[in-house]
Design goal:
Elements (H helix, E strand, L loop, with lengths): L1 E11 L14 E11 L9 E3 L6 E4 L3 E5 L4 E4 L4 E3 L5 E3 L5 E6 L1 E2 L6 E2 L7 E2 L7 E2 L6 E9 L3 E2 L2 E6 L5 E9 L2 H6 L8 E8 L5 E9 L5 E7 L2 E6 L5 E5 L3 E9 L5 E9 L3 E5 L8 E16 L6 E3 L13 E9 L4 E10 L5 E3 L9 E7 L7 E5 L2 E4 L7 E4 L2 E7 L2 E2 L2 E9 L5 E14 L2 E11 L5 E5 L8 E6 L5 E9 L4 E14 L7 E14 L6 E5 L5 E8 L4 E6 L4 E11 L7 E4 L2 E3 L8 E4 L7 E4 L1 E3 L5 H36 L1
Parallel strand pairs: 14-44
Antiparallel strand pairs: 1-2, 3-53, 4-52, 5-6, 5-9, 5-48, 7-8, 9-12, 9-48, 10-11, 13-46, 14-45, 15-36, 16-17, 17-18, 18-19, 19-20, 21-26, 22-25, 23-24, 23-26, 26-31, 27-30, 28-29, 28-31, 32-33, 33-34, 34-35, 37-38, 38-39, 39-41, 40-43, 41-42, 42-43, 43-44, 46-47, 47-48, 48-51, 49-50
Amino acid sequence: VTFQTALLQTLKAARAPQNNVGGTNPIQIGLGSQLATVDKIMVQGSFQNTGRKLDLAIQGDGFFVLSDGQGYYYTRAGALDVDMNGTLIHSSTGMKVQGWTAVQDPTTGQRYIDTNQPIGDIVISAGMTMPANATTLARMEGNLNSTSGILPFAMTVTDDNGQQHTVRFVFSRTEADIARQNGPFTENQSYTWRAYDESNTLIGEGYVVVNQFGRVVESASHTSTRQQVTATQDGSLTVNTRNGFYYVAVIDRNTGRTIYEDENTAVGGSMTINDTDIVAGRSYNVYLYFRRNTVTSITPSTGGQITQADITDPLNIPPDGTYRVRVIDESNDQVIFEGSVNVTGGNFTITDSHISNTGTYTVEFVSTVSLPLNEVVVAPGASISIPSSGELRFYESDSPSNFVVARFESPRYVTAVEVYDTLGNPYSLYIEFIRLGQYGDMKNAWIWRVYTASGEPITYIDANEGTNYVGGIIDFNESGRFTNTYGINWDGTNFTVGDVELRTIQFDASHMGDGTVTIDLDLTALTQFAGANSATFTYQNGNALGTLQSFAVNEAGQIIGTFSNGLTDLLGQVALAIFNNPAGLTEVGNSLYVPSANSGLAQIGAAGTGGRGTLIPGALEMSNVDLAEEFTRMIIAQRGFQANARVITTADTILGELVALRR
């Protein structure tokens, strides 16, 4: 409330400056006052929490818009409710709250709000449903553990001379391992191991097959004389070695696959290995296990013994080792010696009194090493035994108490998500990852496949619509970040990796009344670090049929419904109006206002936009009158009145005293 002067008495008019004299102001006396204006105080009131979801308070400027069917009314009183028809109303007046009702896309079933459309009644029906949607996209995030499988280790062994040797074992996965375990996703997993000495020289390799608990079910090794040979022509390769009969294993260095394993003979210091899998230009590890050799026409230089010097061709002397030896007298084919002989540094001596320096003899050398050999020979008297069953215990052959149990972390990780067909039928979809590690050109490869709990066959589709796959392979770079994923194929014998991106899976849901479910898998957010497996599905865009269970209003005035399928969706949005001069609104009772000639037009929009305030759900705005301040002012006015009343009494007392003094 403001006041103004009612009448004025002018005692002296104002005078303008003249020459060296300045001007003077008018002298006026006010005579009484009158009411000037009664203004509305449109400031923010305090809030009172109610905990009721349809109690809304406006924080900032703005008014709720109400309609009685004939016109709009505006209020800041936010006690709302829903009537029997599901219409959002103003509790005290029954007027309908205005805003926008969400529109449902008939194709996707998604609801959206267009605040550019005219406002209207907001209806929230109790039986409102969310239609079923088929899953077309599923996204994964999280980590795959890089330290899984059989982890590398080192152990130290001692040879016959007391010298210690440290051997390092490294495990990897190759095409041969996939073939050996009879497919990429079998329960047992095969690993190729390689053993290196202190100078990082390969001294042996083989494989070990473990079950899901890391228990050995099969193993083998190749640790004899090894040669690295590059084939010069298809179908054959040649190696140089001492003469004799050998057991030979040829391993493709690129794939780790054993392409040849058979007996062969070296003549004239070389051996030719023929096999259709040998490809010109490829590099191979050739392992030669000496089995036996027969040297004829030996005439000893000294009676009673035969030595390496008596063999005219040094290539007929077997590799170092222990052999069962027979000496046959060629004159009568009688065996005159049979025993164990050591060959060291190409030197040996066979001693027998029946040997004459005038006779001619045949000497047979037969290896004492039985095959398959299941140990790594490090040095004379120093070897490491490879476990053939039970735990992954690698031990020094001559000292079993010196052992190392290789650490095994399951390379397999499985997680699941529920997906839906167009009818809303749910399917539990599992994705299984198995770590390969370094595989071909891939740095950190994992193979993966998808299957459903109900057993629907899965089709894998690449970017070129190719479908000849049994799963996929995902690769990570040295920083543990996703690089790409391709399809993989297994024909029962060969494991191959495609070169076209694969991210789509498909399965037939016709037995549930639907057609084909096609899902794009987004694996780009996966990482591979040394940490626990945490990869999981964080999003899929399908859903089952849902029925509205409850709803709430957020700060923007959006009405969010919660459905029985666990999802939420937009149902509508409450509108707010602002005015250029809200104090100019006309009150019509019940805390309602209508525009006046001086309020300006209502500017209607969404909360939090265009200068409009935001909503506080579960609260109501209280009066904007500061009671403490108003009480203070009242007390001050009361005391002022009391003081003014005392002035007259005091003056009367003083005059009485003056009269008394004259007496």
